[in-house]
Amino acid sequence: MPEENRASDSKMSVATLGPGAVGGFVAGLLWRAGERSMCVGAEDEAAAIAENGIRIESDSLGDFVARPKAVSSLDERPDVLFIAVKAPFLPEALDRARPELVSGSIIVPLLNGFEHMALLRERYGRRVAAATIGNVELKRLALDHVLHTTKSARIELASDADIDAARLDSVARMLNGAGIVAKVLDKEADVIWGKLTRLSALACATAASGLPIGEVRSIPEWRRLLDGCLRESAAVAAAEGANIDLSTETAKINSLPDSLGTSLQRDVAAGQPSELDAIAGAVVRAASKHGIDCPTFREAIALIESSSRKNK
After folding, report:
1. 3-state secondary structure of 130
2. Where are the alpha helices (DSSP H) in 125-280?
3. Separation between Cα atoms, residue 128 and residue 147, nearest integer Å
4. In this predicted model, what pLDDT tens digit does every residue of 173-200 receive, in sequence order?
């Protein structure tokens, strides 16, 4: 589609707060699909994208340069606001999207963990859906360059009667049309814990060991940590009302490519602020609420915190 026709043919206006690896990927694919896509980021991010666009590099989805509008503060009301900021940077980033500018918008957070939901609903009300993005490995190589190394991505959404199902379905159709597999589930707990159960174990095992998942699976010490975290997170998920099958989650982990790493692993290795508390800490806090002990998570957290201190 010619660039000049994209805005006029758009069916939805979409803003993405946080055009990093996940946000840049989503915003870029939506732009390519003809949606009116806008990125809202820090001044240096917005300037780089405004000048160069977002270069998406993907063997499965193709290489292209997307040219969404790029701003440092939301300046118009979108139909949908995706939030793709990592947990440590979320409070500051929210200043770029004032509540009055998303009145009536659907808010779709693509963050790891779940405790951000309370913060977002306090700020934006009950128009915040539960959502996750998975089955994807993304790396931001530069402010305007995202590398996608898996087949595609999967976004799941749900709202426990807070957002009309037809509106969520429209978001899912838009995402599917852009090449992202999207599905609306019945319960928020299934969306949140359907990813967090597996992610928390993967993230802790890879970050604690500093190894990709293939090596984690093959080394008994790290396999024990991986399996222990998975059992504990599955128990917490069940207590939270999610339909999680431990054997299915184990099979999914066993089928992952050997080279797969996690963003938590990369952030810890680089000495950067990480989502350890948003992922593992959140599981442990939820477990405590239900009287569930999580000794493997506590072990993993201690190992990761030690590595973080050494790498700073």
Report:
1. strand
2. 165-177, 188-209, 213-218, 220-239, 246-254, 263-269, 276
3. 28
4. 999 999 999 999 999 999 999 999 999 9
* Separation of alpha carbons 130 and 185, rounded Å: 10
CB within 8 Å of 206: residues ≥ 6 apart? 212, 213, 216, 261, 262, 264, 265
Q: What is the DSSP letter of 76?
A: S
Torsions phi, psi of 146, nearest 5?
A: -120, 130
CB-side neighbour CA atoms (13 Å) of 13:
14
CA 137 remoteness from chain centre: 10
Cα separations in angstroms, 74 against 105, 176, 312: 13, 25, 33
Query: Rounded to whole angstroms, how far apart are CA atoms 263 and 157?
Result: 22
Query: Residue 9: its pLDDT value, please?
Result: 43
Per the CB < 8 A criterion, the answer to whether 3 and 67 are in contact is yes
Q: Check: CB of residue 48 under 8 Å from CB of residue 19.
A: no
Of 132, 126, 131, which Cα lies nearest the Cα of 163?
126
Amino acid at residue number 15? A
At residue 150, the pLDDT reads: 86
Provide the 8-state DSSP code for 128.
Answer: B
